[in-house]
Amino acid sequence: MSDARVGGPPMSREEADRALARLQDEKERIGGALLELEAHQGYQLLDGAVLDGETRRVQSDVRSRTTSLWTLFDLYGRAVDAAAGLRARHPRPGQAQLVELTRLLTGPSVELPVTEVPLERRTLLAVPSGERLTLRAAVDRMTALYEGVARSVAALDTVWSTLLSRLAEVEAERRAAGELLESLGGTDPEFERLRDELEAVAAAVRGDPLALARDGRADTARLDAVLTGLAGVRRRLAEAERLRDGFADRIRGVGAVLDLLREAEAEARAVRDEVLAKIASPVLPELPERSASLADRLAAVGGAGAPARRGWHDLAERVAGLERAAATALEQARETAGVIRGLLDRREELRGRLAAYRVKAARLGHAEDAELARIYEQARELLWTSPCDLRRATVTLSEYQRAIMSRTKGAER
Q1: How far apart are CA 135 and CA 130, in angstroms?
Q2: Are 328 and 378 within one domain?
């Protein structure tokens, strides 16, 4: 609605009625918007919180703007109600009533108290008095105030809701880990460190969430780090709980692996002794000897008083470490035995190849070849003599193969 009527002729009865109907509808809509604003989750969080830092500054600004907004709306509503009351008292308004209606509906009928006059509009020597606004100017000013409050509330709500949601996840993880720790007994320094960090971050989330915002977005890095750490602690404690519930089986399982390890180490020693007797100057890996030290570790963690001395969560790490060490040692012992046995397998391979080459020579008609017979006997003596010189035997076998191939190529020419 324009303010063009100010200083002009008064409205007609029909014009006044149409303007009044618009204003009353506008008043209802503005009141509803203000109530919705105050019911907004972000506004509710902001209104009832004890805050610090930048968030407290925003809270103070929102409260001040909202107070001004409601004050202005109340004054605006009184002016609209005054016009409606005047019209109701005069079903057939005369000229004087139409002049007054025109003043109320289009003139400066909204008088602000001095405290609501913006500072830039005041003067040093002027007698303090309230500023007068038309209804349209009052709506424009309310609109600016409302939009400023709404922007601040929405921006804070976006940050705060994200932080509170992530905080709830982290606190749930802390409770789960704490309950496990309580059931297992003992203490956990990492859990205590993460709990203290969570308390510090939670205080910031609840007291100054904007301190944890970057470029208008919630920065959850600290909460994420605590969540990751607590999840790791909870997994470790859950493993301790499983250990407690199946401790005897886990210890028996490690003992069974150590029995296999002793067998593998004994086999490696036996194969080594055989190689030393049958192979000349072999290059052998060091023998694995882990079973004794691992058995001592098993005795330490499997003793009757171990859980009471260390707590289940500490014991779980030791048992898991022992299981990994025993499995690795068994794999290495079997691999070492295989490497040592490979020297004997190599000798058998060379023996098989020598026999195959001899059959080939006979098939090609060289069974009576004296030179081939000499090389064959030399290779055979090397391969069937203990200790066997594998290097010389390999060289001689290659020489025997080349001699057979040269005779084959000569026959083809």
Answers
A1: 15
A2: no
The answer to whether residue 6 is domain-embedded is: no
Q: Running along the chain, 413 residues long, what does each successive block of 10 average in pLDDT?
A: 59 93 95 92 84 90 93 94 93 92 92 69 56 92 94 90 94 94 83 95 93 90 96 88 77 91 94 92 89 89 55 74 93 94 93 93 88 93 92 94 85 56
Domain span holding position 105: 13-155
pLDDT at 4: 43
Domain shared by 19 and 78, yes or no? yes
Q: Residue 8 falls within a domain, yes or no?
A: no
> What pLDDT does 309 receive?
45
- Picking from 286, 308, 342, the residue at the C-terminal end of a domain is 342
Residue 323 within any structural domain of the chain: yes
Return the pLDDT at 2: 44
User: Which domain-ending residue is among 118, 135, 155?
Assistant: 155
For tokens 């029909």, what's the residue?
14
275 shares its domain with 388: no
Both 23 and 113 in one domain: the answer is yes
Judge if pTM exceeds 0.85: no
Asked if residue 165 and residue 34 are part of one domain, the reply reads no
